[in-house]
Amino acid sequence: GPIHAPHLALLGAPPVFEAPLHVGRPNIGDRARFMSRVEKILDSAWLTNNGPYVRDFERRVAELAGTRHAVAMCNATIALEIVIRALGMKGEVIVPSFTFVATAHALQWQEIKPIFCDVDPVTHNLDPARVEQLITPQTTGIIGVHVWGRPCAVEALQEIADRRGLQLIFDAAHALGCSHGGRPIGSFGRAEVFSFHATKVCNSFEGGMVTTDDDELAEKLRLMRNFGFAGKDQVIYLGSNGKMSEVSAAMGLTSLDGFEEFRAHNAQIHAAYTSGLADLPGLTVIQYDGAEHNNHQYVVVEIDGSVAPLNRDQLVKVLEAEGVLARRYFYPGVHEMEPYRSNQPTADLVLPETRCLSERVMTLPTGTAMHDSDVRTLCGVVHRAFDHADEVVAHLTAAEA
Ligand code: T4K
Predict the structure, then answer these.
(1) 100 pocket-lining for ligand 1 (C-beta < 6 Å)
(2) What's the topology of domain 31-257?
(3) Centroid of ligand 1 to alpha carbon of 24 (angstroms)
(4) If you measure from the C-alpha of residue 197 to the centroid of ligand 1, how many angstroms do you get, rounded to a whole number?
(5) What is the ipTM score, two decimals?
(6) Which of 77, 98, 108, 197 to mutate to test the pocket of ligand 1 (most atoms within 8 A of CB)?
(7) Tens-digit pLDDT profile for residues 240-250
(8) How far is CA 336 from CA 98, 171, 201, 401, in A?
(9) Does domain 259-400 have CATH number 3.90.1150.10?
C-alpha cells in the first residue's frame, strides 16, 4: 500500500533535487580575475587575431602539455578539421565510433571517410589489433581518442602508423592535464587536439588547442586558422577562420588558474561516488590509474543490465525524475548517427564492443557545482531504485504501454 511506497520521484514522491543537476556544468573560476582581464581587452581595443591573451593561453597550454607549440582555435572541432587538412589526410581515416560525433564529422566535413573501429571494453579506447585489420590502400591516417582522459594504446598505434605509413593524431578533447607513462598528453602522434568547451574541465566558453612538437606543422596550422595569410595581403595557403577571440582566451587563462582546484574537487567527488555506489550488483564506477594524472572530469558508470536489477536506460529515467540529468555519453555509437548510418549500414556488424558499451554507460554530474552532500543524496536514490527495482520496472513498463 501507499505506506510502503518507496521514496522515488518516478513513483510519485517529490524530487530530491529542486534545481536540476547537469553533467558538464561549467567550472567558472575566479570571476574578478576574468572581469579584470575583460576590462583590459576593452581598454586595449584588441579583440581577436592572435592577441596577447591568446598568446599567453597558448604558452600556458604548451607548458602543461610539454610541447614546443600550442595553437589556439575557436573550438576543437574546427581544430581537428584544420589538423586533418594540414596533414594531408584523405580517402579513409580510422576512428573509434565510441566518441563524440565531432571526431567523425571533422573528417566527413572534408569528404574523408571515417572508418569506424571497435574499442577495447576495458579502456574504452581504440583496439590496435582491430585498427590494423581495417587498413586498406585508401587509408591515410588514424585518429585515437583519449576517452575520459584515459590514454589510448599510444605505442601500439604509433608502431602501426609508422609501419604502414599513416598519419596519427589524437583527439584529446577530454584529456587536459592527463598523462600516459608519466608524460603529459599533448605530445603524442603528430599532434593532439584539446577542447576548452564550456563543459570541459577548463573552458574558454568555446575553444580548442592543437599541441605539437613539429615546427613546420605548427606554422602551417597558424596560417590555416587565419585564411592562409602569411603577412598583409599575402595568402600562401587555403585557409579558414579558426581563430580564438581574446575574451575566450581570458576565460581560458582564468580557468587554467583554477585548474588544480577543479581537479582536486573532481577527484574528491569521484571518490565520493565510488564509495557511495560500491557493492551495487552489475554497477561499476570507472576508475583512473593512480600512477597517471587524470582531471577526473568524467564520472562514468557502467551498468551491466544482465546482472543489475535495472538497466542503464531505466536508471537514467529514475535519476531524471529526481532532477539529475545523467547523460548517455556515448550513445549511440557515432556509426549509428547520420550520415554514417546511411553511408555505412553494415558497420554495426564489426563493432560489438562499441554497441555493448554504448548501452551500458552513463556519466554523472561533477565539477565545482557539485558537493559531497549532493553525491550522497544521488547515491541514495540509486540504492533505493535498486532496492525497489521491481516497482520501477513495473512503472516504466506500464508507462510505455
Ligand atoms: N572530441 C570529443 C571526444 C569531444 O567530447 C568533443 C566535445 C569534441 C571532440 C569537440 O569539441 P568542441 O568542438 O565542442 O570544442 C557536449 C559538448 O558541447 C561537447 O563539447 C562535448 N564534447 C560533448 C561530450 O558534450 P552536448 O551536445 O551533449 O552538449 P549539451 O548542450 O547537451 O550540454 C551538456 C550539459 O552541460 C547539459 O546538461 C547542460 C550543461 N551545460 C552546457 C553548457 C554549454 C551547462 O550547464 N552550461 C553550458 O554553458 O555536447
Answers:
(1) yes
(2) Aspartate Aminotransferase; domain 2 (3.40.640)
(3) 7
(4) 7
(5) 0.98
(6) 197
(7) 999 999 999 99
(8) 10, 20, 28, 26
(9) yes
